UniProtKB/TrEMBL annotation:
Transmembrane segments: none annotated. It comes from the Bacteria. This is Amidohydrolase. Pfam families: Amidohydro_2.
Length: 276
């Protein structure tokens, strides 16, 4: 099995500015030695390591960790896609054997339509030339723009992180369901079954998560849906914030028809998307 989304950081190093001290559950260093016992106990044999800082230093740090870790099979880094140095930076990163994708942190940018900026088109072209995919860290409000972007770039593999963070606590199913369905129509767009627990409230449990997970399964199918822990951010979840518990919960809720589909969602889809 593959964990398609996890993070490492060291507080105060490698331009690490998040998490902040108020997030006590995750305000400490997280390294491979912290994750490996959890993945071993859960039967996870590989992971996709994803950036958490808007920083070249953070991406370089992740690639160094990947060199030292057999668990990490792929790295998703960050590049300033508007920078005049974006193209050579992308070209250089792509030479690393575990570099597989880039993630602009769209959720925190001031313009919801940032992904449509003509200033990033040269960098996007270089990503495709270097066979790198795009992780889309977005909220529901960004999906309309992401769909336009995806239609412009039908050969660019895109995965929606955390299912676009639906407002589960605010019972925002309908608007989310419609917006993500429009993107699921595009065959190069995938989705991560991750990050949902941190969007729910303390009072919400399995029954509240079920319609979101079932909807994702029916939209993307096992061949375009991949499970991720979002560890250690998972530790912020008010319920079921244990690594193995989230894995078990996702398996129980998914209305899969066969063992093959389970293998895809919990392994093969991530391997195919990230090419390892």
């Amino acid at each position: 099995m593959i964990d398609a989304h996890q993070h490492f950081w060291r507080i105060g190093e490698n331009d690490c500015r998040w998490p902040t001290a108020d997030l006590t559950a995750i305000y400490r260093d997280f390294n491979p030695v912290d994750l490996e016992p959890l993945t071993k106990a859960a039967g996870i044999t590989g992971s996709v390591l994803v950036q958490s800082q808007e920083s070249d230093a953070d991406t370089d740090f992740l690639l160094r960790l990947a060199n030292e870790s057999d668990l990490v099979k792929a790295v998703v880094g960050w590049v300033d896609l508007k920078s005049i140095t974006a193209v050579p930076r992308i070209r250089n990163l792509a030479q690393h054997p575990k570099m597989r994708g880039l993630r602009p942190m769209l959720q925190s940018l001031p313009e919801d339509s940032w992904i449509l900026s003509p200033d990033i088109e040269i960098a996007i072209a270089e990503m495709q030339q270097c066979n790198l995919s795009l992780d889309a860290l977005v909220h529901v409000r960004h999906l309309q723009y992401l769909r336009i972007f995806a239609r412009r770039h039908p050969k660019l593999a895109i995965v929606i992180d955390h299912a676009a963070k639906p407002a589960i606590a605010a019972k925002g199913f309908e608007s989310w369901a419609k917006a993500i369905a429009a993107l699921a129509e595009l065959p190069q767009v995938y989705c991560k079954l991750s990050g949902l627990l941190t969007e729910a409230s303390m009072e919400q449990g399995v029954d509240h998560l079920r319609p979101y997970i079932v909807h994702l399964y029916h939209l993307f199918g096992a061949e375009r849906l991949m499970w991720g822990s979002d560890w250690p951010v998972l530790n912020l979840a008010p319920n079921h914030g244990n690594y193995d518990e989230w894995l078990t919960l996702a398996k129980q809720i998914l209305p899969v028809a066969s063992a093959t589909e389970l293998d895809e969602i919990f392994g093969t889809t991530a391997k195919n998307f990230y090419r390892f």
